[in-house]
Amino acid sequence: MKIKDLRLLSSEELEKKEVEFKKDLFALNYQRKLGNVEKPSRFGHLRRDIARVQTIIKERDLKHD
User: Fold this and answer.
1) Could you tell me which of 24, 17, 21 has the C-alpha nearest to residue 57?
2) Rounded to an integer, what distance in angstroms lies between the CA atom of residue 49 and that of residue 35?
3) Fold that domain 3-64 belongs to in CATH
4) Taking residues 30-48, what's their average pLDDT?
5) How confident is the model at residue 64 (pLDDT cuts 50, 70, 90)?
């Protein structure tokens, strides 16, 4: 997901996205164990999306302090 799109989301929506991305990453890791990963590049994309969401949440927390 693009950073611009993520910045438009509310804090609650960002937290939901983070949970969703982490679930997807968990499922993908499970598929890797079984040897059925279709797009291995998805690992990097999910990790980056999680990092982006966490960065925006942290920025908002620091801005409000």
Assistant:
1) 17
2) 24
3) Helix Hairpins (1.10.287)
4) 94
5) confident
Of 51, 46, 57, 53, the residue nearest 21 (C-alpha): 46
**Residue extents of the structural domains in the chain:** 3-64
Could you tell me the maximum CA-CA distance found in the chain, to the nearest angstrom? 46
Contact 21, 49 (CB under 8 A): yes
Single-letter code of the amino acid located at 34: L
Supply the angle between the helices 11-34 and 42-64 in degrees, to the nearest 10: 160
Structure tokens at 42: 């998805």
Q: Give the SS3 label for residue 30.
A: helix
